[in-house]
Amino acid sequence: MSLTALLAFIAVCALATFATRLLPFVALARQADHPLILHLGRYLPPAVMLILVIYALRDFRPLIDGRLNAAANGWPMLLAALVVVILHLWRRNALLSIVIGTASYMAMVQLGWSP
Amino acid sequence: MPQDRPWKSAFSTTLPVMFGYLPLGAAYGILAIDVGVPVWSVLLMSLVIYAGAGQFLAVALLGAGASLLELAVATLMLNSRHLFYGLSLLQPFSGAGWRKPYLIFALTDETYSLLTSQAGALDHAQAFRISLLNQLWWVLGSALGAAIGAGLAFDSRGIEFALTALFIVLTLEQARRLRRGLPFVIALFCGLAALFVLPERHLLLGAIGAATLLLLGHYRYHREADA
């Protein structure tokens, strides 16, 4: 990739990110308490979060193609996700959940362990 | 808000974010080096983009050779939640003067959480220090990751799971705060449906777009039911 292309890539990503943060301040200042905005502001973020989880776990696809699992890292992924959920419900420490979950996934993947 | 040691006070406020951003920034740095992004670009992205999940996505798209249009659309969709952060800060940020553009630029999930949990009226100078320190932790973490990644000091296979773990933690926190099943039922339906009917590169866009439409439909249905 050329230098220009890389800089263009970074610039587009920076502008798109800033745009999402700036937009309400310039465009919606007077509609801040419109019920539709409040409705989306309340329900869209949690929906997006769960969709991101589903997206991140997409390699785990049991029973597709008649096999138990399509990707080798599917089970470690699901088990590590369970570790994160259980740990977070138990201790509610975001950093702890993320570090232990990631470490257990890395261990399973690097040791080549899968049921 | 202590008046005599404002930086020290800001530092202790941002400590939990520091412990989150250093390893997460490092994970991003390692991943970016792994994909082939030069070290200066790894740091530049943390300086001018400054978005956790957004930068992971950008690196993945860079590695996959995505077009600028795909990048722009995916970034806008991924960060659309920030639209709603801004809405609740319109009032607190008004009158922030020259600090306001940076406060808006640096509005990550974590900074938003810290600023909205400050007691009383928002102190703009202190909000600026908190935002600045948070970005410092992120840039330092990226630099650390770039250094580790470039030196290949350890086997980093699987470290990208940190992002999955982050999303799981944020979902659980959202569920705890909201205590309503609606958005999660909608997300589950849209996410799984997209998984089965859409090609992988349109998955995220399709699922989030469908969820937004369903939420709009739900809003209109309730308006008409109330009227």
TrEMBL record, chain A:
Keywords: Membrane, Transmembrane, Transmembrane helix. It holds the Pfam family AzlD. The chain crosses the membrane at residues 39-58, 70-89, 95-113. It comes from the Bacteria. This is Branched-chain amino acid transporter AzlD.
From TrEMBL, chain B:
It is found in: Cell membrane. InterPro entries: Brnchd-chn_aa_trnsp_permease. GO terms for cellular component: plasma membrane. Pfam families: AzlC (PF03591). The chain crosses the membrane at residues 21-50, 56-78, 136-153, 182-198, 204-221. The keyword rRNA-binding does not apply. It is a multi-pass membrane protein. Its main location: membrane. Keywords: Cell membrane, Membrane, Transmembrane, Transmembrane helix, Transport. One of its GO terms (biological process) is L-valine transmembrane transport. Belongs to the AzlC family. This is Branched-chain amino acid ABC transporter permease. It comes from Bisbaumannia pacifica.
